[in-house]
Specification:
By secondary structure, this protein is of the alpha/beta class. The protein is built from 13 helices and seven strands.
């Protein structure tokens, strides 16, 4: 187990859909790219190898541990690397602060790093017992424990249904409220056990091909705590104005709520003449990639090329 607040350095984060991205995107040696969710720097490293001394990678991440890992991973690249601890919803502000007008390529991978699952302070995993936190950015005030212990039963049910697409949300919310009346819910193991009981599923047991019963509830809480849907909206709205003509935007999503937002945004911008959509259907990982990296299983890639119409 790692020290408090640290990701396990032995866990290598494998960038998903990297081969597909490299087939669609090539950068000039003096190109400028934004990795809006730099993580451990896997995607940035692949594209950074195309860049020379006049090239630039601007990487954003809210997790300071990811910033530190990416700094080490990208340190030997020939291009300039600027890493900023900021949410990608602040894309325009970060570019302005660094004197950058427009870039050739923006990449956003909405998944979280493998190492974050083992970080005992993150509380993202039900595989081990962790504090029920779920903040990807430690500067956020509200934790998942605050949500499950303080929100009303109705609000919890709505949240789990909307962000987790969990049909049994009202039953799960009822079980959560019943449990917290006698004991606060403070760990991931507690919450996972409550959800399993609500769904009449065993708390423990091997599920080699099945999704854990608590997956949707955990997803919903993580989205709520990190305000993920709103920041995705802000990021997608800002992108057209900061991509050069013939530049590209690539987005990797991991669940239907994210992918739906990207799909609709691309369609709206294509209708305005801002984008040419290069992926009529999202690109999904091959069977070989899923075998090599099971985390890639639910990923979807959409790519758009920026056209010449001016954003007003």
């Amino acid at each position: 187990m790692t020290g408090q607040g640290q990701q396990d350095p032995s866990i290598e984060h494998i960038p998903v859909l990297a081969d597909d991205l490299s087939k669609l995107i090539s950068l000039p040696t003096d190109g400028q790219m934004v990795d809006a969710t730099v993580g451990h720097g896997g995607h940035s490293f692949l594209f950074g190898k195309q860049l020379g001394p006049d090239g630039l990678i601007l990487g954003l991440d809210v997790d300071k541990n990811c910033i530190n890992r990416a700094q080490k991973r990208l340190g030997d690249l020939k291009c300039k690397v600027v890493l900023v601890r900021e949410n990608f919803s602040k894309l325009t502000e970060v570019l302005d602060a660094n004197g950058i007008d427009k870039v050739d390529f923006i990449l956003a991978d909405f998944g979280f790093c493998s190492g974050q699952l083992t970080d005992v302070t993150k509380g993202l995993s039900f595989q081990e017992n962790m504090p029920l936190d779920m903040r990807l950015d430690s500067r956020i005030k509200k934790t998942a424990a605050d949500v499950v212990n303080k929100q009303s039963q109705e609000a919890l049910a709505d949240l789990i249904y909307e962000y987790g697409e969990e049909r049994a949300s009202r039953r799960i919310a009822r079980f959560i409220v019943q449990h917290r009346q006698s004991q606060p819910i403070t760990t991931t193991a507690q919450l996972a056990a409550i959800v399993c009981r609500a769904l009449n599923q065993p708390v423990r047991g091997r599920r080699p091909q099945k999704t854990h019963p608590a997956t949707k509830t955990f997803q919903a809480l993580r989205i709520a705590v990190n305000n993920e849907m709103s920041v995705i909206d802000d990021f997608l709205a800002a992108a057209p104005a900061v991509i050069k003509e013939n530049g590209h935007l690539a987005v990797i999503s991991f669940h239907s709520l994210e992918d739906r937002k990207v799909k609709l945004n691309f369609k709206e911008n294509a209708a305005k003449g801002f984008y040419e959509i290069l992926t009529k259907k999202p690109i999904k990982p091959s069977r070989d990639e899923i075998i090599a990296n099971p985390r890639a299983r639910s990923s979807k890639l959409r790519v758009a090329r920026r056209l010449s119409v001016t954003v007003e």
